[in-house]
Amino acid sequence: MRSTESNVTQSITQVIAASSLGTLIEWYDFYIFGSLAVIIGQQLFPSDAGASALINTLAIFAAGFIVRPFGALVFGRLGDLIGRKYTFLLTLVLMGGSTFLIGLIPSYSSIGYAAPILVLILRLVQGLALGGEYGGAATYVAEHAPVGKRGFFTSWIQTTATLGLFLSLGVIVLTKNLLGAKSFADWGWRIPFLVSILLVVVSIYIRMKMHESPVFSKLKAEGKVSTNPLKESFQKRANFKMVLLALFGATMGQGVVWYTGQFYAQSFLENTCKLDFNESRYILLWAIVFATPFFVIFGSWSDKVGRKWIMLAGMLLGVICYRPIYQYFLDATNVKEMQKTMLLSESEPVIERGLVAGKADSLITITVSKVLTNGMTFKESRVEIIPEDVLAEVPAVETVIKDVTLSNGSYIMIIALVFFQVLLVTMVYGPIAAFLVELFPTQIRYTSMSLPYHIGNGVFGGLVPFIATLIASFQGSTPLSGLWYPIGIAALSFVIGAVYIDNRRDEHVMD
Amino acid sequence: MSGLKKILGLLWIVLGPVIIVFLFFQAADKIAAASEGIARTNTTLQWAIIILIFIPICTGLVIFGYYAWKGEYDHLPESSREL
């Protein structure tokens, strides 16, 4: 008896490991492109800013917002027709293959416009594959998990997006440190892409040894596999209404909380608060390290108390806390005001002279490093432009603050506040795979759960930076105005979820 | 609760078209504000993709509202036989 239990546990452990490793690699592949976007731009794109911007827009917007949901439909359908195992094996091969090939594309100086076009095509394949992967992995694990532990087992899949981000940063930093900045910029940036193939081969080997989901195998043996999953998912009213409920009552809010906590926070600290490049990254890394176990804790807890209120509590806390948190970020980094009363010392000015890009006007930058009595440091640059034409109007002198480093107290406080935001991510994201799996029947589960997940996460979440920047550009807006987008979407999703979703846990996903 | 679900359904029906109209106005505003040439093409492309993806989502919100108003969410299925 004990031996049988041990075998079951071992088998489930292998299922989780095989599924999570593949999904982690897919996230790694997706993130390294984003992390190395600047170098890819320099190496593979034309120096003409206009054409680059156009291709970049397609690569970012189309891959994230159109191709990902489309991939959910294509591979979701396949997964419900031929099985989970072979479908998410295919997405892994497509993702790993396209990532590896990006690492092999000759530079723009060698093959001209073929380089950015190849990048765009491979990036679209990546988006397509990512759209198909998650639903397959979550379904596969959930269909193996015993009753009462589905939230716990699927929560391991939920950690992979965060760990994929970690792995990508780790490989990039390690490669850069080993090769040096120049070699990395010349050719070393290709290594993180090429490494992907090794990870994918290992993952394929492990996945090949796994069996098909027992629930799907049973369905297949009984001849009950859906003949047209897309039609059954979206044309059958009873099921379509659940797809809509999953999107508007759960994944939409989850997507914005996820992107605000893990991406917008770091971007806000770096671009709005002018925090030092490394400091803003270390803050996020520490926050993620402390928060990652909570994916499993909340996933497991949802097996006991239900999925609904844990996810909705994460959204509600985001709605209530985002503005005070970001206001603290602004106050804690407002060195312009602080230096009026707390300036301890300042360095000799460093003067740099140059020309305004594309003009003959002179550009003079005077930079002073300053230290405050609370231990904070920053650089203050005065940028002056002297027109070539002596009769032309002299533009106003611009003062720029940059490279702010924090005092110990505010550094710890900001880590705690970013940790809190990632904690909210774990609340909304930890239980959601089990929630989605339990909402749909086996025949059309892969298709039905993949689409709302990728619209919620990819479209609503992925648009956080774009729409937040858009709102911040409105007349009369403040640096905090961009937060109205995640707050509004999370509030809407909270109301829909609270009113329309029930807290039932479907113990039987075998139907 | 059923009454609230139905009343909110009407709100979702109205919200869908309002979002689309808002997006169209924003798109027109931002495209007009972009400088001539490649920058304008780029802004147009971004907004075309956003509107293209949000039209079906907002249509979904209207359908969701319609279902709610018709009482389709008064009872959620408890097993796959009900789906």
List the helices and strands and how they pair.
The complex is a heterodimer of chains A (511) and B (83).
Chain A: H1 2-35, H2 37-44, H3 49-82, H4 84-102, H5 108-111, H6 114-144, H7 150-158, H8 160-179, H9 181-188, H10 190-208, H11 214-221, H12 229-234, H13 237-272, H14 277-291, H15 293-305, H16 308-332, H17 335-342, E1 343-346, E2 350-355, E3 362-372, E4 377-386, E5 398-405, H18 408-429, H19 432-439, H20 445-461, H21 464-472, H22 484-500
Antiparallel strand pairs in A: 1-3, 2-3, 3-4, 4-5
Chain B: H1 2-33, H2 38-69
Helix pairs in contact in B: 1-2
How does this model look, in words?
The complex is a heterodimer of chains A (511) and B (83). With 511 residues, chain A is of the alpha+beta class. Chain A contains 22 helices and five strands. In chain A, strands 1, 2, 3, 4 and 5 form a five-stranded antiparallel β-sheet that branches. With 83 residues, chain B is mostly helical. Chain B contains two helices and no strands. Chain B has helices at 2-33, 38-69. In chain B, helix 1 runs antiparallel to helix 2. The radius of gyration of chain B is 18 Å and the shape is elongated.
Q: Tell me the major beta sheet of chain B.
A: none
**Subunit organisation of the chains:** heterodimer
Query: Count of helical segments of chain B?
Result: 2
Number of strands of chain B: 0
Chain-averaged pLDDT of chain A: 86
Distance between the termini of chain A: 27 Å
**Coarse structural class of chain B:** mainly alpha
Helix content of chain A: over 70%
Over the alpha carbons, how many angstroms does the gyration radius of chain A reach? 25 Å
Order of helix and strand elements from N to C terminus of chain A:
HHHHHHHHHHHHHHHHHEEEEEHHHHH
Taking pLDDT < 50 over at least 5 consecutive residues as the criterion, the unreliable ranges of chain B are: none
Topology pattern of chain B, helix = H, strand = E: HH
In short:
Chain A has 511 residues and is of the alpha+beta class. Chain A has 22 helices and five strands. In chain A, strand 2 and strand 3 form a beta hairpin.
